[in-house]
Design brief:
Order of helices and strands: EHEHEHEHEHEEHHEHE
Number of strands: 9
Number of domains: 1
Radius of gyration: 17 Å
CATH class: Alpha Beta
Distance between the termini: 34 Å
Shape: globular
Largest sheet: 7 strands, parallel
CATH topology: Rossmann fold
Number of helices: 8
Strand content: 15-25%
Strand order of the largest sheet: 3-2-1-4-5-6-9
CATH architecture: 3-Layer(aba) Sandwich
Helix content: 40-55%
């Protein structure tokens, strides 16, 4: 994977950050997006430099399609500054959360979830395709909530289900360019996602542990290495697949 370039949305924290760290260790340079926290972004860039890799972060709301053209321009400039014309890997990881029962979820809440998790993934990938190398890799991040239904997650789960179907279409239509597309579906993970609900709430943490075959919630370091591995040539024949990384939740 040495001298490859990855783009990771939501790369400054949580699963995206861990994926970036694992890619640095494999000799990959990273362009990443972050929602708001510039210090987290700067910290990741420092970690890249400490490992002898290059990284650059751009603020981007992945639910705002109007911002994508400017982002793609910055990606092109960054690649040129690194002596490259194209990148190799795209990880659509950026996400937001919603906990609201089906009966009371508003259209505004619904749109807020689907704009990030479906529309954003669809059109950002589309706009980046001209800059992706043939033989590249796409990983879209889904959730165990696309497989099982837990009350309060109807909009989020439905959006992730849409991403899983979209991924199969990506794999089929991008096949002539030898670009693979797969879904990684984490289970419940101890990060600051959703306000740190799994990490910081002892009751929720125990509930997750009790429904997981391996007896604990996941951590970011359970997911980042798996995504990095999926991007590698060792997994070049994996395509159009949903791979759940949950320690065996709700089997």
């Amino acid at each position: 994977m040495t001298n490859k370039v990855a783009i990771i949305t939501g790369g400054s924290r949580g699963l995206g950050r861990n994926t970036a760290l694992n890619l640095f260790a494999r000799g990959v340079d990273v362009i990443f997006t972050y929602r708001a926290n510039q210090e987290e972004a700067a910290s990741l860039i420092r970690e890249a430099e400490a490992k002898g890799r290059k990284a650059v972060g751009f603020q981007l709301d992945t639910g705002d399609v109007r911002a994508f053209d400017a982002f793609v321009t910055e990606v092109r400039k960054t690649l040129q500054s690194w002596g490259k014309e194209r990148f190799d890997y795209l990880v659509n990881n950026a996400g937001n959360s919603l906990h609201a029962d089906f009966a009371v979820t508003t259209e505004e809440q619904f749109d807020g979830i689907f704009n990030v998790h479906v529309k954003g993934v669809y059109f950002l990938t589309q706009k980046l395709l001209p800059l992706m190398n043939d033989g590249g890799r796409i990983v879209n991040v889904s959730s165990g909530l696309a497989r099982v239904s837990l009350p309060g997650s109807s909009a989020y789960g439905a959006a992730k289900g849409a991403v899983e179907v979209l991924t199969r279409y990506m794999a089929r239509e991008l096949g002539p360019r030898r670009i693979t597309a797969n879904v990684v579906a984490p289970g419940a993970i101890e990060t600051d996602f959703s306000g740190g609900m799994v990490r910081d709430n002892p009751e929720m943490n125990k509930r997750v542990a009790d429904m997981t075959a391996l007896g604990r919630p996941g951590v970011a370091d359970d997911i980042g290495p798996m995504i990095a591995s999926l991007l590698s040539d060792e997994n070049r024949w994996v395509n159009g697949q949903r791979i759940e990384v949950s320690g065996g939740m709700l089997l």
